[in-house]
Design brief:
By secondary structure, the protein is α/β, with parallel strands linked by helices. Among the domains are: 135 residues, Leucine Dehydrogenase, chain A, domain 1 (Rossmann fold, 3-Layer(aba) Sandwich); 155 residues, Rossmann fold. 44% of the residues lie in helices and 17% in strands. It has 13 helices and 13 strands. It is globular. The relative contact order is 0.13. The structure holds glutamic acid. Glutamic acid binds next to β4 and α11.
């Protein structure tokens, strides 16, 4: 039997600490009571399981699976499941808390949760991934539920994995329960518009911020880090709105074309090239992929992983606006310098909330047994994203704080008010 050892938090700044530092600043600005502070600083529930999986070789390998529910005061917990080699409990705790704040910012009736399995799906066969997902689901059978905790895709998972989760959960319950998970394939009750929802929300956030900064989209340049679901949709939709996307990147490297990259062509190339941009003829490969972050663009969209803008490179960031497609791409230690430089940041808990917003629509449709048109989904999610942006912007002016702290203030205030009414034990 092989056991995958917990990965140390590499040389990253700890995402849980980054989250807590911002939470502390916002809590102080709000004058949050000690009672509510103490409730929110720790997750409500943390489950860690060992999952023995028979690999294709016939050997059994044990994987660690985690689910953290940060809060369910506003409603059932909501948040994705990440399959990645560096999944760490502190990261999952931070991501779960970010889901609480994210759902509160866009005012949808959910708490925050997150799951993770430490594995490398790129090196696993579909059969191995399926067995792992089914085992994880069974291990979490009493945690998940349409009124308790509703998972969704995150890094390394997608509609295929959500279908296995729904099927395993439904078998265990003896009836089809499609509202237990969102981000499903359409035929299983997935929502139209869910695939592009996060990228679409990034686009709406970027345009709202550009309006405030008086940046004309038709004269603006943009770089997008990450060409997975979030990055590629954000790039495509921003290009459609007039921005020139001069650089994109993925696991194979960063690509640059000062005339603008044709994003549709890049997506088609990626889809016919085992999912990577390696060898993409429409742009030049940059010597160092990290250069993308330091380009003199109007809009920078980090849409890959956590902790890419840190104290190490923040001095070199030249963008006027950063729109965080990923969760936690900017470390706490970089915030101060970004603010001093006058760069506006639309923070993750606002900018990438379009995904969970359409997840909420999916859950509503499942519970109604009814399907909305793509037009209705997009119209409603655009409205929610725009209203959330305006509220956070107003809060940032009122409290004289950056957009990130303003977003935390909006979220924490909502959760705190709910506690006031619901009370404790
Ligand atoms: N994993 C996505 C996020 O971080 C989506 C979560 C969801 O739809 O529940 O926001």
């Amino acid at each position: 039997m092989a056991y995958i050892e917990p990965a140390p938090i590499k040389d990253k700044e700890n995402p849980l600490e980054s989250m807590m530092e911002r939470f502390n600043i916002a809590a102080e600005k709000l004058g949050l009571s000690d009672e509510v502070y103490n409730v929110l600083k720790n997750p409500a529930k943390q489950v860690i399981v060992s999952l023995p999986i028979t690999m294709d070789s016939g050997k059994i390998q044990v994987f660690e699976g985690i689910r953290v529910i940060h809060s369910n005061i506003l409603g059932p917990a909501k948040g994705g499941i990440r399959f990645a080699p560096d999944v760490h409990i502190d990261e999952v705790r931070a991501l779960a808390a970010w889901m609480t704040w994210k759902c509160a910012v866009v005012d949808i009736p959910y708490g925050g949760g997150k799951g993770g399995v430490r594995c490398n799906p790129r090196e696993m066969s579909p059969g191995e991934i399926e067995r792992l997902m089914r085992a994880y689901t069974l291990a979490m059978i009493d945690v998940f539920g349409p009124d308790k905790d509703i998972p969704a895709p995150d890094m390394g998972t997608g509609p295929r994995e959500m279908a296995w989760l729904m099927d395993e959960y439904s078998k265990a319950k003896g009836t089809t329960v499609n509202a237990v998970v969102t981000g499903k394939p359409l035929v299983l009750g997935g929502s139209l518009g869910r695939t592009e929802a996060t990228g679409r929300g990034v686009m709406v956030s970027a345009l709202s911020a550009m309006e405030k900064l008086k940046i004309n989209p038709f004269q603006a340049t943009c770089a997008v880090q990450g060409f997975g679901n979030v990055g590629s949709w954000a790039a495509l939709l921003l290009e459609e709105r007039g921005l020139k996307i001069i650089s994109v990147s993925d696991i194979s490297g960063a690509y640059h074309n000062a005339q603008g990259i044709n994003i549709r062509e890049a997506i088609n190339y990626r889809d016919s090239n085992k999912g990577t941009l390696e060898g993409f003829p429409g742009a030049d490969k940059l010597a160092d992929p990290a250069e993308l972050l330091e380009l003199a663009v109007d809009v920078l969209v980090p849409a890959a992983v956590e902790d890419v803008i840190t104290k190490k490179n923040v001095d070199n960031i030249k963008a006027k606006l950063i729109v965080e497609g990923a969760n936690g791409p900017t470390s706490f230690n970089a915030d101060k310098i970004i603010n001093e430089k006058g760069i506006m940041v639309v923070p993750d808990i606002l900018a990438n909330a379009g995904g969970v917003t359409v997840s909420y629509f999916e859950w509503v449709q499942n519970r109604l047994g009814y399907k909305w048109t793509a037009e209705r989904v997009n119209r409603r999610s655009d409205r929610i994203m725009k209203e959330a942006f305006d509220q956070v912007y107003k809060t940032s002016i009122k409290h004289e704080v950056p957009m990130r702290i303003a977003a935390y203030i909006v979220a924490i205030d909502k959760v705190a008010q709910t506690y006031q009414f619901r009370g404790g034990f």
